[in-house]
Design goal:
single chain, 352 residues, Aspartate Aminotransferase, domain 2, 2 domains, 4-stranded antiparallel beta sheet, 12 helices, 39% helix, globular, HisP_aminotrans, pyridoxal phosphate binding, Aminotransferase_I/II_large, histidine biosynthesis, EC 2.6.1.9
Length: 352
């Protein structure tokens, strides 16, 4: 017998495939929904000040207390309703670990963030994948589904489509299990489900500083939930899960909301300009309230287009499981104009 025996669930599953991070320079990266603009200058100053005056030899505060205080002030949520994580992915993982036993069903609409499936399978859960309707509104089958846990990414990835809080309230109210609303991209949308939080004990909201705050490299996420939920999550959390530099950077970022809002406005404006240009090239553009758009075009091999753009050192996201669409992150005005130029040239070469 082989002494190295893996769990059957691990052997049977496919892991999550992150977006490509090129090893060589010179690429225009429009494939992983990072913010094209740098973080607030206050973040850089705070990190430099810390490194000049403090030691990295000590462990960081285990509960990220200063970050919780800042987040409490920004979002109007009591500190004991907040958990800080090493990116929102860690928080999603913790939620699945404390709620899902082997054989439990985990429900979510598709297409969506494929990490939900990975997390369910890792815990021995059974993914219940419910197709979105054609207009990407809330699936009625998700509302009525019998499950141990439900996920809703809003705005959704990879489509960018948005479900209004009034529909989310119906989902939470009519569900007999916890409902996790993943609001990684909500700062680019018109409204959040945050006002619902104190009315529904089964609602869990997850946020990140990776997108609107330009801190993807620091990996900081927030979970907002009833204190009873947070207390159980703390039992499963790693001892020192958020490093000290991430905590320092997050605090500084939360102090400069004006800078963040200005970048959000620029990205939304660029998103609308780019969407219109893609429509003029004959693409269908899914209505997006995120920092990316998903596009498709009949008669075009989108895998070929993805590969051709990569040869021109422009990265967009192609999903083999959704071969008829591309997801394109919104970069700077210059980057998006360059992308339009390349796509126009490639379509002309292909006589499409």
């Amino acid at each position: 017998m082989n002494v190295v025996e893996f769990r059957r669930a691990i052997l049977a599953m496919q892991g999550y495939t992150p977006g490509e991070q090129p090893k060589e320079g010179g690429f225009v990266k429009l494939n992983t929904n990072e913010n094209p603009y740098p973080p607030s200058p206050r973040v850089i100053a705070a990190l430099q000040e810390f490194l000049a005056s403090r030691s990295l030899a000590l462990y960081p505060p285990p509960l990220s207390d200063a970050v919780r205080r800042k987040a409490s002030a920004v979002y109007g949520i009591p500190e004991d309703w907040i958990l800080v994580g090493n990116g929102s992915d860690e928080l999603l993982d913790l939620v699945v670990r404390i709620f899902v036993d082997p054989g439990d069903r985990v429900a979510y609409p598709v297409p969506t963030y494929t990490y939900y499936r990975v997390l369910a399978l890792l815990q021995g859960g059974v993914p219940l994948e419910i197709p979105f309707p054609e207009d990407f509104s809330l699936p009625e089958a998700l509302v009525t589904a019998s499950a141990r846990l439900k996920f809703l990414c809003n705005p959704n990835s990879p489509t960018g489509t948005f479900i209004p809080p009034r529909d989310i309230e119906r989902l939470v109210r009519d569900s007999t299990c916890p409902v996790v609303v993943d609001e990684a991209y909500v700062d680019f949308a018109p409204e959040s489900a945050l006002p619902l939080l104190k009315r529904y004990e089964n609602l869990i909201l997850v946020r990140t500083l990776s997108k609107s705050f330009s801190l993807a490299g620091l990996r900081v996420g927030f979970l907002f939930a009833h204190p009873a939920v947070v207390r159980e999550l703390l039992k499963a959390k790693a001892s020192y899960n958020v490093n000290i530099l991430s905590q320092v950077g997050a605090c500084a970022a939360l102090e400069d909301l004006e800078y963040v809002r200005e970048n959000i406005a620029r990205i939304r404006s660029t998103r609308e300009w780019f969407s219109e240009r893609m429509r003029s090239l004959g693409f269908f553009v899914y209505p997006s309230e995120a920092n990316f758009v998903m596009v498709r075009k009949a008669g075009v091999d989108l895998r070929f287009l993805y590969e051709a753009l990569k040869r021109r050192k422009v990265l967009v996201r192609y999903f083999p499981e959704w071969p008829d669409a591309l997801r394109i992150s919104i970069g700077t005005e210059r980057e998006m104009a360059l992308l339009v130029h390349h796509i126009t040239a490639l379509l002309e070469e292909a006589h499409v």
